[in-house]
Amino acid sequence: NKIKTRLDDNLLAFIDIHFMICLCFNDIDNAKDYLKNIKKYQDSSNDTYTEISKTITFTLCEAIVSYRTNNFNKCILILEEVLDKSYLIGGSNAQRDILNLMLFDSLLKTKNNDKIQNFLNIRTISRPNNKFCNKLQELYL
Question: Mean pLDDT score of the chain, rounded to an integer?
Answer without folding.
Answer: 88
